[in-house]
């Protein structure tokens, strides 16, 4: 049995589908009692990853555990080792954690302290583990959906700063392999897309797939910070803008790890756009 947290999200949905398709018994964790759109045969468990006690009954009898810390779960909380202890008591043998590339490249950013704490807990747990360190997600472009739908315009900073954004479906595919197959224990994989693309180029690809002109309007860093501070803590806003505006050379490089694990190239940004078109149409 494989327990998947974040099961209704960008990575969780394709992951649950891939595991179910492979014939695995899957438990999809959600804060909602009846999450919509789960594949047939997948069991939903209502729990809150931020409340470790609620995870105890869910992890009872599980073989593998996928951990994804969304939203404020990336902030302070119970010691991460406690969750790993609960998993071990429940019988879990293998853990896959979604961390971030920045946990490795920006070792002093407080916004990634929680992920680093979880990485250390997973590494010290004595369980088989795989840590996934993705770069920026292609799905961050969902933030543009409303202004594209209503005015065919994207407002974003740093138009020509390119990063190799990763399709969450590729993260899900790598996670499925690490959860199901031997040979990935003790590994940390950096996951990126196949090429670096900046916002201006992403918008051009969106226009092409949509078949309609979408205008790109470049925001200053200050304008972007103001817009983002309505839904993100200030430290996270500044940290995110540092990466988007002045990435380190290593953060702009394409990692070989998706292809190494999956035996096929990572999906390009355009593939994510094509699958996600209803959000922008
Ligand atoms: N976005 C990026 O560019 C990027 C880059 C590198 C790493 N990451 C890492 O990826 C993880 C997040 O991925 P994501 O943003 O794509 O997640 P997401 O898919 O938006 O969220 C996954 C699910 O988590 C559940 N959830 C449980 N507690 C939550 C809470 N307190 N707040 C919000 N959702 C909660 C929600 O499901 P229910 O409502 O069903 O409970 C949600 O559907 C984080 O650990 C982040 O550090 C992100």
Written description of the protein model:
The mean pLDDT is 96. It is built from 13 helices and nine strands. The protein has a seven-stranded parallel beta sheet, with helices on both faces. A two-stranded parallel ribbon has the order 7-9. The chain has 281 residues and is of the alpha/beta class. It has a domain at 2-137 and 167-193 and 249-266: Rossmann fold (3-Layer(aba) Sandwich), CATH 3.40.50.720. Residues 6, 8-10, 12, 30-32, 35, 49-50, 68-74, 98, 100, 115, 134, 136-137, 139-140 line the site of NADP nicotinamide-adenine-dinucleotide phosphate (NAP). NADP nicotinamide-adenine-dinucleotide phosphate is lined by residues 6, 8-10, 12, 30-32, 35, 49-50, 68-74, 98, 100, 115, 134, 136-137, 139-140.
Task: Please summarize what this structure is.
With 281 residues, the protein is of the alpha/beta class.
């Amino acid at each position: 049995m494989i327990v998947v947290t974040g099961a209704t999200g960008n990575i969780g949905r394709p992951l649950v589908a891939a595991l179910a398709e492979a014939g695995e018994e899957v438990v999809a964790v959600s804060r909602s009692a009846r999450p919509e759109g789960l594949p047939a045969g997948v069991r939903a468990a209502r729990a809150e990853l931020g409340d470790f006690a609620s995870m105890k009954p869910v992890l009872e009898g599980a073989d593998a555990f996928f951990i994804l810390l969304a939203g404020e779960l990336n902030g302070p909380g119970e010691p991460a080792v406690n969750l790993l202890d609960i998993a071990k008591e429940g019988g879990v043998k293998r853990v896959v954690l979604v961390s971030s590339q920045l946990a490795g490249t920006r070792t002093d950013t407080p916004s990634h302290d929680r992920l680093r704490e979880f990485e250390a807990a997973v590494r010290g747990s004595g369980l088989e583990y795989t840590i996934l360190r993705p770069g920026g997600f292609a799905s961050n472009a969902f933030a543009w959906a409303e202004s594209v739908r209503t005015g065919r315009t994207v407002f974003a900073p740093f138009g020509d700063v390119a990063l190799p954004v990763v399709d969450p479906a590729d993260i899900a595919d790598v996670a499925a392999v690490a959860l199901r197959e031997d040979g990935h224990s003790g590994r940390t994989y950096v996951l990126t897309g196949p090429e670096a693309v900046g916002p201006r180029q992403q918008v051009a690809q969106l226009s092409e797939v949509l078949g309609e002109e979408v205008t790109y309007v470049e925001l200053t860093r200050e304008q972007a910070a103001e817009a983002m501070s309505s839904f993100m803590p200030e430290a996270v806003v500044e940290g995110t803008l540092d990466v988007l505006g002045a990435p380190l050379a290593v953060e702009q490089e394409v990692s070989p790890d998706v292809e190494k694990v999956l035996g096929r190239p990572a999906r390009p940004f355009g593939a994510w756009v094509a699958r996600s078109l209803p959000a922008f149409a």
